[in-house]
């Protein structure tokens, strides 16, 4: 059976992707993209865990067996880039609401 | 697109996701850790940093951090540019 | 000016509490950013902590007060953001290029040149070479970037039209 962090990743990506496909409100679509990004970040750090290890920091370290540091560094970069992408998406959603008066993603006049 | 097409495509994608997650390594036993073992042993000596994650971010992979800072800067410039002509 | 502050935003208790709380939050964020080479955190987390002060002030004082002061502070905010990322770029290129400077700057302190032996130890602040300076530069850039994003999105958006989006339950039209 799948272990617990990977199950949480599957649940997060599942909910994010189905909400992105089935919802009509632009803000809800942006939130679904953010949820999927969080699922991917969780997957990235749960790849680098050794059983019974502690954080890879030497300040008052209890033991010398440590988790892998490289996936944690990659996750930090991924979090910041997700912030930038979601901020720009929200800016465009605000501009769309000002220009067209609606946040519905299925109205025909958005595509003109 | 019809609702059935969307639901069917999503079901196929989720089947792929389940099969992919089932074939991962068991949680807590990563397969190959030679690079990270080298980093844990020699990171403190080469950079003088107690925090190995910070030393990876700012010394071994500093170009990634430069790219990420550039992405944040570009996003802020984009938000600024979207509201340029309407401040008055 | 006093009349304007009293009109908008939340009650005066919240405004006083936000003004008082800004100092410990700023200290904590600066601590997290400065000790990036000893404790978890670093430049990005510390910058995000300090950027919540801007959001606190926006919520407590209402957006009209911030709107009336935006024209003279945006250019200085953009300058500070550019200074932050330029400092980070200069530090990156110094530590990547010259091996002569590499021996001097990394694996020792800024001024005291304390080297760290292998193994667990209580953290000493003077170690780490050029990494604390890079943490501070990245923290400065993150603070100004996030504050600018929050202020711009909340101040510059006009009032919308009257039609509101409706999420229909049941059968949808294609």
pLDDT average of chain A, as an integer?
Answer: 89
Main sheet characteristics of chain C = none
Note the beta-strand portion of chain C: under 5%
What is the highest CATH level, the class of chain A? Mainly Alpha
Taking the alpha carbons of the first and last residues of chain C, their distance comes to: 53 Å
Residue stretches of chain C low in confidence (pLDDT < 50, at least 5 long) are: 98-104, 108-113, 161-165, 168-174
Structural class of chain A: mainly alpha
Total of DSSP H or I helical runs spanning 4+ residues of chain A:
3
Portion in strands of chain A? under 5%
The outline of chain A comes out as elongated
The largest β sheet of chain A comes out as: none
The helicity of chain A comes to 55-70%
Provide the number of structural domains of chain C.
1
Describe the fold and architecture.
- The complex is a heterotrimer of chains A (112), B (88) and C (174).
- Chain A is mostly helical.
- Chain A has a single domain (4-111), classed as Orthogonal Bundle (Helix Hairpins), CATH 1.10.287.3510.
- Chain A is built from 3 helices and no strands.
- In chain A, α1 runs antiparallel to α2 and α2 packs antiparallel against α3.
- Chain B has one domain.
- The model of chain B has no long low-confidence stretch (mean pLDDT 85).
- Chain B is 73% helix and 0% strand.
- By secondary structure, chain B is an all-alpha fold.
- The longest helix of chain B is centred in the last third of the chain and has 21 residues, at 62-82.
- Chain C starts with a helix and ends in a 19-residue tail after the last helix.
- Chain C has one domain.
- With 174 residues, chain C is mostly helical.
- In chain C, α3 packs parallel to α7 and α5 (70-97) crosses α6 (99-105).
- Chains in contact: A-B, A-C, B-C.
Fold topology:
The complex is a heterotrimer of chains A (112), B (88) and C (174).
Chain A: H1 4-22, H2 26-46, H3 69-100
Helix pairs in contact in A: 1-2, 2-3
Chain B: H1 3-22, H2 34-47, H3 52-60, H4 62-82
Helix pairs in contact in B: 2-3, 3-4
Chain C: H1 2-7, H2 12-34, H3 43-61, H4 63-67, H5 70-97, H6 99-105, H7 131-155
Helix pairs in contact in C: 2-3, 3-7, 5-6, 5-7
């Amino acid at each position: 059976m799948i272990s617990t962090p990977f199950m949480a990743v599957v649940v997060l990506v599942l909910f994010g992707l189905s909400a992105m496909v089935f919802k009509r409100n632009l803000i809800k679509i942006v939130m679904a993209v953010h949820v999927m990004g969080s699922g991917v970040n969780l997957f990235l750090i749960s790849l680098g865990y050794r059983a019974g290890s502690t954080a890879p920091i030497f300040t008052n370290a209890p033991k010398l067996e440590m988790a892998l540091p490289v996936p944690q560094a990659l996750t930090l970069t991924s979090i910041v880039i997700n912030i930038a992408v979601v901020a720009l998406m929200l800016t465009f959603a605000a501009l769309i609401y000002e220009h067209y008066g609606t946040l519905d993603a299925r109205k025909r006049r958005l595509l003109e | 697109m019809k609702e059935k097409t969307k639901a069917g495509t999503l079901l196929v994608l989720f089947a792929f996701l389940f099969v992919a997650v089932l074939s991962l390594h068991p949680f807590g036993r990563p397969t190959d850790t030679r690079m990270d073992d080298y980093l844990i042993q020699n990171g403190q000596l080469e950079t003088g940093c107690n925090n190995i994650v910070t030393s990876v971010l700012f010394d071994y992979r500093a170009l990634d951090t430069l790219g990420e800072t550039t992405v944040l800067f570009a996003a802020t410039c984009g938000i600024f540019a979207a509201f340029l002509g309407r401040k008055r | 000016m006093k009349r304007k502050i009293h009109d908008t935003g939340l009650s005066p208790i919240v405004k006083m509490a936000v003004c008082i709380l800004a100092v410990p939050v700023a200290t904590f964020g600066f601590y997290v950013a400065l000790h990036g080479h000893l404790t978890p955190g670093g430049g990005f987390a510390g910058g995000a902590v300090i950027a919540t002060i801007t959001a606190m002030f926006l919520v407590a004082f209402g957006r009209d007060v911030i709107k009336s002061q935006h024209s003279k502070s945006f250019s200085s905010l953009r300058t500070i953001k550019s200074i932050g990322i330029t400092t980070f770029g200069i530090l990156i290129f110094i530590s990547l290029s010259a091996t002569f400077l590499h021996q001097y700057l990394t694996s020792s302190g800024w001024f005291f040149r304390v080297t760290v032996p292998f193994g667990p130890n209580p953290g000493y602040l003077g170690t780490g070479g050029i990494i604390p300076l890079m943490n501070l530069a990245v923290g400065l850039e993150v603070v100004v970037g996030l504050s600018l994003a929050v202020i711009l999105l909340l101040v510059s958006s006009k009032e919308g039209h009257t039609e509101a989006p409706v999420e229909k339950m049941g059968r949808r039209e294609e």
